[in-house]
Design a protein that fits this description.
With 269 residues, this protein is mainly beta. It contains one helix and 14 strands; from the N terminus they run ββαββββββββββββ.
Length: 269
Amino acid sequence: MKKIIPALLITSTLSGAVLANNSYHGTAMLAYATSDGEISGVEVEAEVTGFVGTFYLDPVSYGNHPYAEAAFLEKASSLNFGHTNSKFEAKSLGISNTNGETGIGFHLVQPESYFVFAAGYSKGDDSDSLNIRLGQYLTDYSMIMLGYDLTEPDDAEEISQFSIAYKHVAPFNGTTWAWEVEIYREDDDEFGDKDTGVSLEADYFLSRATSIGFFIETVSGDNDSKSYGFGGEHFFQPNVGIFLGFIRFDPDAQDSETDAFAISGEFRF
């Protein structure tokens, strides 16, 4: 389960040509998410649609892995491309903003040492973003990663974030767990805000094809908040899957709470 999530069920009629293979070379994911709620007593609404395409430098074997974790467990290197369109409205204030954002990136795993180097850049209508990741597989099932994110709005000071994350996928034996914990520090130079966040994301795989999961996050500092969510993913075939999810964002500010619903579809080829 992912925090920011995709949309559209891709019909299984596309899957026939791929079913004979036990590996895949790429993925195409379509996404839709909608949210509504209040921020400091003001009613707000938002929508996001997006596409993410990933091409793997070598075929990714399904092995005996949960389908959703095959690329991680096979230590796959990839190139990726994505585009999102978003809309935000606060009707009582007469605010309505739209934004388009396009990004490219790569995720490289050194085949002997299993050292990971990943980076991405995105350009939006009103900001640029850069992210860099350095990681290391500690075992065949676990990885630690350091991260740096920088966002530069066109009309404001930059926002930077440093993070450390650990991910583990237990060996599959009919069922299994996958979980990831992250700690990050964010600095907003425009307002002088400094926040520290801790998040936990976990999925329980009922089978190779089906999982249910949850997400929790707490932020402390100048913008205290907590978030939690849950969702489920199912692959109708090894190369065709759908995800449904819900997240609630609950900042400490008075009269503030938003709910988000998301759906995504993934096709592998």
